[in-house]
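Two proteins follow. First one:
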Amino acid sequence: MRFTVKILFLLSQFGFDPFKMLKSLRGVPRYVKTYFHFRSGYSGRLEFLPCLFDWFEEGGSAKDEYFWQDLLVARKIFEANPVRHVDIGSRVDGFVAHVASYREIEVFDIRSITTTIPGVTFKQANLMMPAKEMAGYCDSLSCLHALEHFGLGRYGDPIDPNGFERGFVNMVGLLREDGVFYLSVPVGIERVEFNANRVFDPRTIVNLAIKNSLELSTLTVIHQGGRVEVLEPDELQLTDLASQRYALGIFTFVKLTATQDHLDLGQSV
């Protein structure tokens, strides 16, 4: 089954989507029938532009993990109302647009954005490189479905097997004490699927956060099919999540103050 999914993914990279093709073929008889029905009552200019698979779709997709992460984190930011929110590499046509509809947002991305977007200030930046002059730059930070790509070269970034760690550390550096960091990454059996993405053991992310003075506040998991689950992130739950093939984890971290950072934070999970 997993082999079949990978083959289909590879075909899509070359512009061939077999699922869309099959849906389109199913729609041909209906298209022909409805065309002649419409033509019988219409006398104006009529051209062909068939849309063959939309009949088989819902009115909108509410099962996709991007839909849920963009919606849930945008709502969190609305409720928190931070002074300055910065996003790292999330979807401009999804999450960033959600947030920009109600507040200003700054976006850092390794790729350029040439379109001027109301409410969005853009800066092209490689977050695998430190920016000490921007320490404590914001009190709210997001990076949704992006960290897993760092260092794999997919988006023009330099090849670096430790790129995600460097990126994580540099992002934390942007955040003020008591600031909130919203991070989503694929979680499950830890691996690199080169050069698409990494999948993280969730304990890798939690331990990296602890080393960088972050405390886990909430963990929301989006399973395939759009099932959303809020977990109590204990050892048992994290171990179970690490044994699954794939899910999307949305981690909400809070940056500890210098006083809190010196307290006993317990053992890494």
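Second one, unrelated to the first:
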Amino acid sequence: MLVEYLELQGYAVYTANSGEAALEAFARQRPDLVVLDVGLPGMDGLETLSRLRENQSVPVIMLTAHGEERDRIAGLLAGADDYLPKPFNPLELAARIAAVLKRSTAHAPGASGTPTEIATFEVGNLQLLVKRREVRVADRSVPLTAAELRILETLLQRRGEVLSRAELTRLALDRQLEAYDRSIDTLISKLRRKLAEAGATGAQIRGLRGHGYVIDTNS
């Protein structure tokens, strides 16, 4: 059903019924996006995602059992760009796919919704190359997921400005903040860790309880 629906939306769709088959299909087809179910036979979706993230930054949307928050958090920590709990409306999945593809490939919108004129953000030894969709620290590439990169970009665009969790979800993830949704917190935690491990200097992402997040820079 999903294949037929997404093909009607103009997508070319390839399927796999296990984690192992999914990795093999990915190696052959090199898709622009992966929709990955947590509940796969054999190697489950989380392990499949971890294997995929060893050397691939392709956007991934996880499908999780309804109410299984631990699966959603585990998926985000493993490198998922978004998640959708089952059961879901295929129209919502199509909307999520469009949003993830947009933020992973298009130029970033500025505050007014028009393409930003800034080609590169430079803070300390950290560079965000907008057109290349790449983050570098001390001239070494830092592998970020599309969601992590978009969050960093949004904070750098609004440097010094406190963004609420709802604002950051809307601007960076192109969707509304849902009740009990901790995606932003999980993604920022992972983003902080990756930047710290890479030795990034000159920028600090701070959380202000009850207010949101801000990036403090020395420039």
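SUMMARY FIELD: The domain at 1-105 is CATH 3.40.50.2300 (Rossmann fold). The longest helix spans residues 90-105.
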